[in-house]
Write a structure and sequence with these properties.
- The protein is α+β, with helices and mostly antiparallel strands.
- The protein has three domains: about 80 residues, Clp1, DNA binding domain (Jelly Rolls, Sandwich), CATH 2.60.120; about 200 residues, Rossmann fold; about 110 residues, Elongation Factor Tu (Ef-tu), domain 3.
- The strands form five sheets. The chain has a seven-stranded mixed β-sheet with strand order 13-12-11-14-10-15-16, with helices on both faces. Strands 17-24-23-22-25-18-21 form a seven-stranded mixed β-sheet. It has a five-stranded antiparallel β-sheet with strand order 5-4-7-2-9.
- Helix 1 packs across helix 2 and helix 3 runs parallel beside helix 5.
- The longest helix has 21 residues.
- The relative contact order is 0.12.
């Protein structure tokens, strides 16, 4: 394959937007000098690869030379000058670092920063989180990363709300070196499809995070919380719920000053100590289309089931329970009566080619939605007559006690079956 290569001499404060074309890859090398990607310093002996739909921003404060390659003939490189975003994130890190140091000196009286990053879609929330997390890790901390954006997950697969303790930095979300990750099921990518369920899962996830803060180092390291881009009406109310559940003390409002002032007003009205910081979005971040967002979800699913080790198993269909979590809500029957329903059994046929969460819940007597996931699976095929189901999973389903509860999601996984060559 033909490769196009360009070497760029960047000056102080310059950035390079790394935006691969459709189904293309871009490779970046540091030739000389110093540069960083999302706050992680680049190594001169490493070749960094970014594949569509992932994107990144390279920044330098002292000047450098970088080489950029792409697997097509028309390589366009966008150099950004005088964008204040990297410097603003660096200043924010300095504020968080001081609070971490104060937490250590106070012997527990002061806690580390709990930061809520908010803003509309494509305002740089994920980029801001990545940079702040990487700066913290490089300073010797182990911050907790909380991602409650179910549609564009940065820790695990879509349709979940997650938290993890970071052990090392990351240049690309989805490849985070972490420990003690908790994935709670939501099953949807749009929060407004079940706001009550989302709210309940937020509080449950906050319980898991708070329990880890019994460790003094983790408590001082603090937490960075990434959110979805729904900021008006009920979306703002959900953001307030996140702030309350995680007891945040700082809000970073990106690209929407009014949103930050809303938080300030709420804090003043309720006597909450809350610092609100403001920043404009990175200059190079363009708004992503619905198709690009869908491609991102497909890419995340593909990376787990096709590009990484997994288990392809055949298990008794009768050992599986397909389930859908939901909040308690009213439904209207054909005769006009209203019934209150919550979680419900799903049919295997409706779960085929969809991402499934493997629950650790022991049975349906318990509240399944409050139990974390232990992995993910895709139902490739099934036969009711022979009582067989063929699945690909991140855990060996044959080793799990029956029944195995599989939680359905709206996330398509048809590309997994196609990649494996499994026929309809």
């Amino acid at each position: 394959m033909d490769m196009s290569r360009k070497e760029l001499d960047l000056l102080h404060g310059h950035q390079v937007a790394i935006i691969p074309g459709y189904k293309r890859s871009v490779y970046v090398e540091l030739v000389e000098g110093q540069a960083e990607i999302f706050g992680m310093f680049m190594s001169a002996d490493e070749r960094y690869c970014f594949t569509y739909p992932h994107r990144a921003v390279l920044a330098t404060y002292d000047g450098c030379r970088v080489a950029v390659e792409a697997d097509n003939c028309d390589l366009e490189v966008q150099v950004i000058k005088d964008d204040p975003f990297p410097a603003l994130v660096g200043a924010m890190h300095a504020v968080l670092e001081q609070q971490r140091q104060d937490a250590v000196k106070s012997a527990g009286e002061v806690v580390g920063p709990k930061v809520l990053v908010v803003g509309p879609m494509d305002s740089g929330k994920s980029s801001c989180c990545r940079a702040l997390l990487n700066y913290a890790v490089q300073a010797g901390w182990n911050p907790t990363f909380v991602d409650v954006d179910a549609g564009q997950q940065g820790l695990t697969l879509p349709g979940t709300l997650s938290s993890a303790i970071l052990r090392a930095g990351t240049n690309e979300l989805g490849q985070v070196d972490h420990a003690e990750r908790v994935d709670l099921p939501f099953g949807r990518v749009n929060l407004n499809e079940d706001c009550k369920l989302y709210q309940a899962q937020i509080w449950k996830l906050a319980e898991f995070v708070q329990s880890s803060f019994s460790n003094a180092h983790l408590r001082a390291s603090g937490a960075i919380i990434n959110t979805a881009g729904w900021i008006d009406s009920n979306g703002f109310l959900l953001l307030l719920e996140i702030a309350k559940a995680f007891q945040v003390d700082k809000v970073i409002a990106l690209e929407n000053v009014y949103l930050g002032h809303q938080f300030r007003q709420w804090a003043a009205d309720h006597g909450v100590l809350l610092d609100v910081l403001f920043a404009r979005k990175p200059t190079c971040l363009a708004e992503r289309s619905i198709e690009t967002r869908r491609d991102y979800r497909d890419c995340m699913v593909q990376s787990v089931f096709v590009r990484r080790p997994k288990f392809t198993v055949t298990v008794p269909l009768s050992n599986l329970i397909f389930y859908q979590v939901a909040s308690f809500h009213a439904v209207e029957t054909r005769n006009g009566k209203k019934l209150g329903v919550s979680n419900q059994i799903a049919h295997a046929g409706n779960c085929r080619d969809r991402l499934l969460g493997v629950s650790i819940a022991p049975n349906l007597v318990v509240d399944v939605k409050q139990f974390p996931l232990q992995g993910f699976a895709v139902l490739l095929s099934f036969q009711t007559k022979t009582d067989e189901a063929r699945l690909i999973s991140t855990v060996d389903l044959n080793l799990l006690p029956a029944p195995v509860i599989l939680l359905s999601t709206v996330v398509s996984a048809v590309t997994v079956r196609e990649s494996l060559g499994v026929m309809n």
